[in-house]
User: Fold this.
Amino acid sequence: MKRSIGLALLALAAACAQKNEFQAPPPPPVTVALPETRDVTEYAVFTGTTEPHKTVAIRARVRGYVAEIPYQAGTMLEEGTVLFRIADDEFQAKVRSAEADVEAARSDLGAAQAAIESAEANLALAETAVTKLERAYESQAVSEILVLETKAKRDVAKSELDKAKAQLQVAEANVGVARAQLESARLDLEWTTVRAPMKGIASMWQVFEGDFVGGGLPTLLTKMINDDKIYCWFNVPERWILEISESIRASEGRKGRASDVPVELALVTDEGFPHRGIGDYADPTLDPDTGTARVRAIFDNKERRIPGGAFARVRFAVGVRKNALLVPEQALGSDQSGDFLLLVNSSNVLERHAVEL
Assistant:
């Protein structure tokens, strides 16, 4: 027992006699990479706003009360789908009244035509009578008074014919007016059923059943969009407009327009620029206040991945940099003095080198 205690005390004394020395940690592992040299396409990047390529405001074209709203808002609708029905009792009555007016005008026209035929027949008889009496008068068979009386009757027949022709013109005009009023009444009746003017999505209705619409200015009922294709509008500075035009002339021999240029688009949730389109319009002149031109690009959107009214980034190629030196983006550092890289020298020591991106 005493021997064991003594050995423990000797071991404790030896441990106290050892010195604490700092052990440097091993160097951290460093990932290195070689730069690459290759041709790189340079892009101009802008921000823009998307919109459907077709947007239609549906408005009431006649006055009346909304009787029915049979469509489902927010769903894809075919062209001709019934969106709204406006009470049509009044318009049906107007059509019937206009149809009656047309029939009455046609009846008057028929009477005028009959009057002309009768007047022409009377005039023909009078002309014949005058001719006969004039021959008889030459042979002294009848008196001059009888000839004059017959000529007077002929003149009356001519006057009646002229009057009948004038009445015919009036009747023909009345028929035209009545037909126009009937067509207008039928159009009004047709417009009481509001149909989709195109294939697309109808938004939520702006009125409800029982509302009176069409009073004063045409009432907005709803809106429809067709986003099978999508537009993106963005402003391009003068410098880029000139460089793009020069690039097109140099590389493709076209007329140097800023439209007809391949364009790529990215939404806020996209990685890279996955949507491909083409510039289809550019303002012909620059805005002198901003020094920019409005440019529009169009993109296929049958899968409806690009919503209208979204902010987006667009880019298009403005040139190719030959033999560009490339390094991984995560290798770049930045401080108050600018961008830099850490390079491994021949002694495996890191050195800081300023770079220009």
